[in-house]
Amino acid sequence: MAAAARLISRLTLVTGGGSGIGRAVCQRFASEGASVVVADISEESANETLGSLPSDLRGQRHMAAVVDVASKESVKKLVTSIQTHYFQPPSVCVNSAGITQDNFLLNMEEDQFDRVILVNLKGSFLVTQAVAQALVACGAPKGSIVTVGSIVGKVGNIGQVNYASSKAGVEGLTRTAAKELSRFGIRCNCVLPGFISTPMTDKVPEKVINKMKSLVPLGRMGEPAEVADVCAFLASDDSRYITGASVEVTGGLFTG
């Protein structure tokens, strides 16, 4: 539940907004007054999220859009269409699009590694670059870019050498972008979820889920809304002196 209408008049782009954490971010931001662009590779999923968004606060106008974050052409087309529709670039962006293609290192195919890096890491770079370029070009006084990483980018995870590598890269991307873009008033931060109940985890066997829960000091899986809460904080002026940071949303997992 939103604590305040902190995001009124903010135009927000959320990639991967069609499901899971991305959908929860869209819903949370809309509840705080933002106009939300729900971007996803699945038009159907994006429209489902769009239909769930409240639009009863001042000046809110939401839209759904199809994007392949791994394609520079697709990302540029998305940002251009947003500017055409709203007459401004998004001042808030959440990079939530991501995939997994798990396998043990000894068995992983090259294309499994490449595809995950392409979507998770290159996709975050392309969207961050396009949004930042648009903000700088129009002289926007501030912006906030939040990228969804993962705790496994810090600690690794068996069977996820590609995913862990992509999420470690996302943190390096975020810290570097924060240093380069701060002079333009653009803040860049990372959110690192732990074990979160999403469509990705729905496929995991129950015995594995129970094992995962036993590793979490708070004793449960996290909810997408709990990640969205942190994204909303980082998008708002409540975090105006925070940039280049990684915030763990893990229930205490891997705290040592």
UniProtKB/TrEMBL annotation:
Gene3D superfamilies: NAD(P)-binding Rossmann-like Domain. Heterotetramer with CBR4; contains two molecules of HSD17B8 and CBR4. This is (3R)-3-hydroxyacyl-CoA dehydrogenase. Belongs to the short-chain dehydrogenases/reductases (SDR) family. It is found in: Mitochondrion matrix. It catalyses: 17beta-hydroxy-5alpha-androstan-3-one + NAD(+) = 5alpha-androstan-3,17-dione + NADH + H(+); testosterone + NAD(+) = androst-4-ene-3,17-dione + NADH + H(+); 17beta-estradiol + NAD(+) = estrone + NADH + H(+); a (3R)-3-hydroxyacyl-CoA + NAD(+) = a 3-oxoacyl-CoA + NADH + H(+). Pathway: Lipid metabolism; fatty acid biosynthesis; Lipid metabolism; mitochondrial fatty acid beta-oxidation; Steroid biosynthesis; estrogen biosynthesis. SMART domains: PKS_KR. Pfam families: adh_short_C2. GO terms for biological process: estrogen metabolic process; fatty acid biosynthetic process. Keywords: Fatty acid biosynthesis, Fatty acid metabolism, Lipid biosynthesis, Lipid metabolism, Mitochondrion, NAD, Oxidoreductase, Phosphoprotein. GO terms for cellular component: mitochondrial matrix. NCBIfam families: PRK12826.1-2. PROSITE patterns: ADH_SHORT. GO terms for molecular function: estradiol 17-beta-dehydrogenase [NAD(P)+] activity; quinone binding; testosterone dehydrogenase (NAD+) activity.
